[in-house]
Write the structure tokens for this entry.
Amino acid sequence: MHVNPFDLATLVHDDGEDDAPHFDQVAALCAECAVAGLELEATLAEFEQVLDQIMPRGPGGPEVDDPDLRRRMLRIMVRALWRLLPNPQLQFATPEVPVPGRNDPCHCGSGHKYKACCQALERKLPPPIDHINLLPILLEALPRERWGELAGSRVGYDHLGDAVRRFAELEQWQEILDLLVPWFADDRALVMDNEWLLDMHVDALEGVGDLDGKARLLERAVERGDRPLRSAMLQRQASMAADQDRFDEAWGLFEKARRLDPRSPNLSHLEVVMLIAEGRESEARKRARFWVGRLERRRKPDLENLIDLLRDVARRGKDALFEADVGFAADDRQVRAALDSAPPVCCRYVLDVVDGNAGPLESRPELAEALQVWSERITQASWLPGDQIDPEDRVNELDDMLDLLEEYPVLWDSFEALETLQTAAGELLPVDPYDLSADRLGERAWSLLECVLEENKAQDALLEWGFVENRPALNALAKAVMGQFYSESQPDLLIERLECLLRLNPSDNQGLRSVLCRVLSVAGDYPRVVALCERYPDDLAELQYQHVLALFALDRKDEAAEVLRGAVEFHPKVFEYLDRSRVVAPQLMPGSVIAGGDDEAFIYRSDYREDWQRLGALKWARGVLG
Ligand SMILES: [Zn+2]
């Protein structure tokens, strides 16, 4: 594969390619120059010295023989990186790299106008990457005794936070301390804005076993921090006291915290949690309602999640708290790395097709052996929704999964492992929301299916839910299409895959016909909606009513009227909801709908009422029903 030498985004993800200058290598040299105090022009001159090493020509290098062109390409790359590199000369802010006007002389010194020279070249490159954090690379070049210079500097907090988090992942506590101790050398840093730095500092002290140091730091923060920070520290102590059932002490600390910083939004959460922990649920719900009103008046978007949670507590009491995310916030970096090194898909299942039915998916011995170990080690219990589990258990289980995949790479070719990993990856914070690990796992599940069916000459056979051995496959594939459904991407492929799953398992134990009905309706493909509904007659309310709407849209009004009468007879509530211009939302339970319930009717109305109105079907239906 040929890699565009300037596709920085590719280079970042690319470790083994030889035919392009290595991103890390160029970035590291930039960092060394910045640390040595060189300006950009001097840095570019340094790079010219090593042009032939960094960007060799001919085999192994970019397919560019012209040394001047190679020089200009390297310059563009260095300039792009320089802009992202925190600079010690600028108190670790990132420098502005001036761009010449279109008609000004080009920055490369060619004497041509910029627009006719390097601008044209830059345009051929992908858009500049601006979310890459080069602080870790700079820190590698910066001698440890100079790390203190970052304290109180203009370094981007997101860069610093990311760098510290990476150290924490590797449990490099000493590095964190070298970085953060200077920040807290005096009391100036003890302000609320730095609470997260303080947290990481505390974790690092714990990591190296300096519990006295940790206690002293926290004490200092409680005594000498600014009012919001002191309040935050007291809130933390209150929460710890409540955890140990020392409620009198906890409420005393809470009151102190409230007086120090009455506007702290976190007081709301803490108060509600403490009331519930003490068994005072009805008071908790009352207080949650109070806080919702109070926080809403502030109209701050970053409070929205908190307000939603409090509103939920007001409605449902303690259940709302226990189902909420309890702080599992690991990201999907590890899963991505594992995916990057996964072997190509290979068929490790045997199918025995008899009369068009493939029977159960049977693992070949090498996979069966690995799956045995997998099922002993991985319980999946940590990933079930609504479970009250320690977030750390999830992290540990994810580690176990990735270890097993490394030890038994054949597991990459099992639907069992893919399905469990999909669930796990869905809970992780995505590093790149446009390229979700869960989606990549789903794609692998689909490739695996194709490969297994082909190898076993079972392309047209059934793969039924009735055989328990087939369920992990059907689940993994369904999870993949649901991911696609929510991201609303590639509707044609989504329809094709949903049709495929209904063909493999026509009894549709997973309810995918409802998803397909929705996708086809959104696409306005009413002939296929009718065909689907005819395949599943007397079925879900959604399909019955969509059958009506699709027939109506196709101007088959007599048939539509007949199906409508049947639909109203079997699912009267849906039409009641559909008919009303305003309705009150009933209680909705995530992931489940009660047949014949208010929730079913409400959801149908939310999904389709607009179509009914737009097509004039609502008015027509009222007429038909008299
Ligand atoms: Zn130029």
Remarks:
- The chain is about 60% helix and 0% strand.
- Residues 1-19 have pLDDT under 50 and may be disordered.
- The pocket of zinc ion is lined by residues 72, 106, 108, 110, 117-118 (CB under 6 Å).
- The longest helix spans residues 437-455.
